[in-house]
Amino acid sequence: MNSKLKSNLEVAGIYGVLLIMFIIIGYPLLWTIGLSLNPGTSLYGAKMFPENWSFTHYEWLFTNPRSNYVTWYKNTLIVAVCTSVLSTFTVALVAYAFSRYRFKGRTYGLYAFLMLQMFPVLMAMVALYILLNTVNLLDTLTGLIIIYVGTSIPMNAFLVKGYFDTIPNELDESAKLDGAGHFRIFFTIMLPLAKPILAVVALFNFMTPFMDFILPRIILRSPENFTLALGLFNFVNDQFANNFTRFAAGAILIAIPIATVFLLLQRYLVTGLTSGATKG
């Protein structure tokens, strides 16, 4: 087999895999979009490409008095923005400490981060429920934000720490000679140079509240405090509920803020993912 034929076969194989992945991803997405444009509310009579398509369900979500979709959307945005900002800042502080300082327990702390990544958050649900109930933060967005921020530290701190290790220590020493303190070095040198990895952390933590269902299900009880995942679940979970098309419309709208943040941070994401994972 000559090299040209082998190269063509490799390219054909790559495109074949990409085509299969596109079908796997695109088929459910097309069905969801088509389902949201069907005029009825039943799942069984819906079509992927409806003949009499309309935006009735999108209008219903925002204008019908029985719909709490706007409230759920607002709650999710509040949780997502707060979680993203607080998690990114907290993770950066923790990663900076483990990267630049030498203290007792540092090695064991890094091992603890690795071990905590082995256990899912689901194992701590009972403890988290009791803790939030003790401090009167159950059924509040504040309690949900605190849990998201806390659980984001182990994995993300280890990732950001690897990126900080690639930044030369000589920059810190030069800044100290000029009279800069630890916080000034952190804010004026480390954070600007670590924008790629911080963008990755910010995006991942922003996406979590939009997609997570189990944690809000356990913590939140009042419908006015629901996030989108929990609220949309009730569309199809309530007895005699037949709101699959409205559920699809609400699910499609979830992609708007995530796509917006992704586009804003796009130039940093590839660099951040590769550097944080391979260096340090």
Note down, in words, how this protein is organized.
GO terms for molecular function: ABC-type maltose transporter activity. InterPro entries: BP-dep_ABC_trans_perm, MetI-like, MetI-like_sf. Residues 73-265 form the ABC transmembrane type-1 domain. With 280 residues, the protein is mainly α. The protein has helices spanning 3-37, 56-63, 69-100, 106-116, 125-134, 141-164, 169-177, 182-193, 195-211, 214-219, 228-237, 244-278. α1 (3-37) packs antiparallel against α12 (244-278). It is globular. The two termini are 42 Å apart. Mean pLDDT is 84; it is low at 276-280.
**Radius of gyration of CA atoms, rounded to a whole number:** 23 Å
**Total number of strands:** 0
Low-confidence stretches: 276-280
Give the class from helix and strand content and strand pairing: mainly alpha
SS strand fraction:
under 5%
In one word, what is the shape? globular
Distance between the termini: 42 Å
Spell out the helices and strands N to C: HHHHHHHHHHHH
User: With helices defined by DSSP (H or I, 4 residues minimum), what is the helix count?
Assistant: 12
Helix coverage percent: over 70%
- Largest β sheet strand count, sense and barrel closure: none
Mean pLDDT: 84
Protein name: Sugar ABC transporter permease
InterPro entries: BP-dep_ABC_trans_perm, MetI-like, MetI-like_sf
Domain ABC transmembrane type-1: 73-265
Family: Belongs to the binding-protein-dependent transport system permease family.
